[in-house]
């Protein structure tokens, strides 16, 4: 009898759904299951998830993917995990039950705590050690909030009765019973020293976080444990783990320093591989661990555009200018240019490289001739301009020119946007054949650990190009557009 084919299972635990995807050796999808779960909004600006529901939906998705692919559980060679980052789970060591809902990365409840930490003058120390800025986004401040709000939890944590983890740790614990994380997730907590590769005692003391609650940190491609047999129907090893953005960088095979990816979703997430050097940004970008294959860390610079695809959602849901997001492309193409209209969607201020929380959404250049199509086109173009500003800042920090942009995410389906991005950035934008690049990254990390893929070269050969957008715009036109865009940004920033 011929040996059974083997596959790698990626668990992609996202903010709104749990997904599981089976990949074959070529990196093609052979089974997928996605299950949405409840978003809990206890107060304006607060977001929670039920950790038990995260686990339930994730397990069901894993079983569903195996069923969809019509394979036997023992054909799964390994499991890789990728997850929404920074989301904080605290659970009871004895019973394994969460002691509070998960506090989601988007949740702003620890904003005041962050203000206090900044007022204490801790920003430089935190940046130097963790590569991060003090912000409610990161797990450590969410833990501080829990311990301040519920002193009993602090006592229990100090007695070693509780376990903390980001969602990867929670899933690894439920699958294998072990309390572990990887450096990509650890580097999003504000508690992890990314240069020394360990939880930072000084920060733990300053933030009053008991070390007893922390998971052990092992490489992103390593043996995390065996999933209990009753869960998936076979004792499958868990051998890969990375936060979602880092997994996407890996899935895009951005292995060389200076290579970068941009995910065009609700916002844009841009990461650039900086090799073995944790580059300190002059533009307030984050420094983060990209992955650890067991031979020392690879680092990345990270930045985000707050409002990207969301501007199209806004045009659709609030302004009624498009019926669906794909109509934006048709409208943008129906005109030759934006008719001198520039839109700066600074709905929540502007991020890197501007860092202006006072800036507000602005449209300039409207005339009697402006149409809906010009407006929609200006909105799409704003996604490309913002990404360009971010990428240029990254290049400045690293001192190297990015060769091309590897793109993914919902809005990367918009070919007008991709071409315009290539034009204003003066660099090719490349789309991969496999749309599920984040899950694929987790699968690669897991598969490399068990020898399913022999080395990075094999992974790189698997990266197949679906489409490449080559810059076509005349230099003069580009310069003129960028000058106008900068003026529009200036207007958005001087509004308040
Ligand atoms: P997320 O993971 O952040 O929820 P997705 O990667 O699923 O986001 O992408 C969804 C976003 O992409 C939405 O904001 C939507 O408006 C935008 N989007 C989807 N398709 C298109 C399109 N064809 N053109 C422009 N934007 C699009």
Please explain how this structure is put together.
The protein has a domain of 237 residues: 2-Layer Sandwich (Nucleotidyltransferase, domain 5). The protein starts with 6 loop residues before the first strand and ends with a helix. It is globular and about 70 Å long. The model has no long low-confidence stretch (mean pLDDT 95). The protein is built from 17 helices and 23 strands. By secondary structure, it is α+β, with helices and mostly antiparallel strands. Helix 4 packs across helix 5, helix 12 packs across helix 13 and helix 13 crosses helix 14. A 7-stranded mixed sheet has the order 17-18-16-15-21-22-23, with helices on both faces. The site of adenosine-5'-diphosphate (ADP) has 15 residues, from helix 11 and helix 12.
């Amino acid at each position: 009898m011929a040996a059974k084919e083997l596959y790698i299972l990626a668990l992609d635990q996202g903010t709104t759904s749990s997904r599981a995807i089976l990949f074959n050796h070529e990196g093609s999808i052979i089974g997928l299951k996605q299950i949405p779960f409840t978003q809990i909004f206890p107060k304006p600006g607060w977001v929670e998830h039920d950790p038990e529901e995260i686990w339930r939906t994730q397990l069901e998705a894993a079983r569903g993917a195996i069923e969809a692919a019509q394979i036997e559980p023992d054909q799964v060679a390994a499991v890789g995990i990728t997850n929404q980052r920074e989301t904080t789970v605290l659970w009871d060591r004895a019973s394994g039950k969460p002691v509070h809902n998960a506090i989601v990365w988007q949740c702003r409840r620890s904003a005041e705590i962050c203000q206090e930490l900044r007022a204490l003058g801790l920003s430089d120390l935190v940046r130097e050690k963790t590569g991060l800025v003090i912000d409610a986004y990161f797990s450590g401040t969410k833990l501080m909030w829990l311990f301040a709000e519920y002193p009993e939890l602090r006592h229990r944590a100090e007695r070693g009765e509780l376990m903390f983890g980001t969602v990867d740790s929670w899933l690894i614990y439920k699958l294998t019973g072990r309390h572990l994380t990887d450096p990509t997730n650890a580097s999003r907590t504000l508690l992890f020293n990314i240069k020394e590769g360990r939880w930072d005692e000084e920060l733990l003391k300053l933030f009053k976080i008991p070390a007893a609650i922390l998971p052990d940190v092992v490489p992103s491609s390593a043996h995390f444990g065996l999933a209990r047999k009753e869960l998936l129907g076979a004792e499958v090893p868990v051998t890969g783990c990375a936060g979602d953005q880092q997994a996407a960088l890996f899935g895009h095979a951005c292995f060389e320093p200076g290579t970068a990816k941009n995910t065009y979703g609700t916002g844009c997430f841009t990461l650039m591989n900086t090799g073995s050097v944790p580059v300190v940004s002059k533009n307030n970008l984050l420094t983060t661990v990209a992955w650890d294959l067991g031979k020392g860390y690879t680092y990345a610079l990270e930045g985000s555009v707050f409002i990207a695809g969301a501007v199209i959602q806004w045009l659709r849901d609030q302004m009624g200018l498009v019926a669906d997001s794909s109509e934006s492309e048709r409208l943008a193409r129906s005109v030759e240019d934006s008719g001198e209209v520039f839109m700066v969607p600074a709905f929540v201020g502007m991020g890197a490289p501007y860092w202006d929380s006072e800036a507000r959404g602005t449209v300039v250049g409207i005339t009697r001739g402006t149409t809906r199509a010009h407006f929609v086109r200006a909105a799409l173009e704003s996604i490309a301009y913002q990404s360009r500003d971010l990428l240029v800042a990254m290049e400045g920090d690293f001192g190297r020119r990015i060769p091309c942009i590897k793109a993914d995410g919902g809005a990367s389906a918009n070919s007008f946007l991709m071409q315009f991005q290539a034009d204003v950035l003066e660099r090719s934008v490349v789309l991969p054949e496999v749309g599920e690049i984040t899950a694929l990254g987790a699968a690669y990390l897991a598969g490399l650990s068990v020898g399913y893929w022999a080395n990075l070269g094999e992974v790189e050969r698997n990266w197949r190009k679906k489409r490449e957008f080559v810059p076509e715009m005349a230099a003069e036109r580009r310069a003129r557009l960028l000058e106008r865009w900068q003026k529009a940004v200036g207007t958005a920033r001087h509004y308040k």
